[in-house]
Amino acid sequence: MQPRIKICCISSQEEAALAIGAGADALGLVGAMPSGPGVIGDEVIRSVALELPAAVAGFLLTQECTAQAIAEHVHRCAVSTVQVVNHVDPAELGRLRASLPALRIVQVIHVEGADALTLLERYEPHVHTFLLDSGSPSAAVPLLGGTGRVHDWKISAEFVRRARRPVFLAGGLRPDNVREAIRQVQPFGLDICSGVRTDGRLDPGKLHAYVAAIRTPTS
C-alpha cells in the first residue's frame, strides 16, 4: 500500500490547490511557532481549511501545550485535525480528546535519539496518529519542524514496528531519498515541507518529482 502524502507549510489557497492537484492527501497549515518556515495567520489557516475538499485533511500545526489552548486554536482555525508539535503532557491530550471527541489528534515525536521510543506508550492512548520529525524542542530557540534534517530512520522504523497507531515520517525527505525512507521505515504516510520548495515557495517541479518518486512502484 502506498503511503499517504502530506505537504506541509501551505501558505495560501494557491499553494493548497497546487499540492492537491499533485496528489496530496493532507496539507499542513502552520500556526505561530518560535522558529521554522511556513507560519501563517489563523485567519489564513481558516480560509484555506474551509475550502479543502472532503477527501483532503487539513492539519493545524500548533505550539500550544494545554487542552484549553489547543481547543481554542482549533476553533479559531475551523480544522478537524490538529498536529501538536511540542512534547506536551499526555494528560492534556486526554482532556482535549474528552472535550472534542470528533477532533483527530496527531502527536509529533522529535527523534533526537532512541529515547523517542519511550514516548510511544505515554502518548498512544490519547492520540490517533504519530508524526516522527527531526526537531529539537529543548533547544534555546525550540525547533519544532521544518528543519530539513534527516534523523535516524532505524529508530523511526522501530517506532513504526511497535506502534498501534498510523505513523507519518517527516524530516529531510526529498525526491532522491524518499524511496529509501519508505523501504526502511514503512510509514503510513510521508510529510514534507522544505524538500518541495525553492526560496520558500512551493515548487511545482520538485513537488511533482516527489510525488512521482513515491508513486513509482519498486522493482
Polypeptide structure, described:
The protein is α/β, with parallel strands linked by helices and 219 residues long. The protein has a single domain, classed as Alpha-Beta Barrel (TIM Barrel). It is built from eight helices and ten strands. The chain has helices at residues 13-22, 42-50, 67-77, 90-99, 118-123, 153-162, 178-185, 204-215, and strands spanning 4-7, 26-30, 57-62, 81-84, 104-110, 129-133, 167-169, 189-192, 197-198, 201-202. The strands form two sheets. It has an eight-stranded parallel beta barrel with strand order 1-2-3-4-5-6-7-8, surrounded by five helices. The protein has a two-stranded antiparallel ribbon with strand order 9-10. Helix 5 (118-123) links the parallel strand 5 and strand 6 (129-133). The model has no long low-confidence stretch (mean pLDDT 92).
Supply database-style keywords.
219 residues, two-stranded antiparallel sheet, 8 helices, 35% helix, 8-stranded parallel barrel, 10 strands
Structural class: alpha/beta
Q: What is the overall shape?
A: globular
Unreliable spans: none
Query: What fraction, in percent, of the residue positions are helical?
Result: 25-40%
* Arithmetic mean pLDDT: 92
Quick take:
The chain has 219 residues and is α/β, with parallel strands linked by helices. Helices cover 35% and strands 19% of the residues.
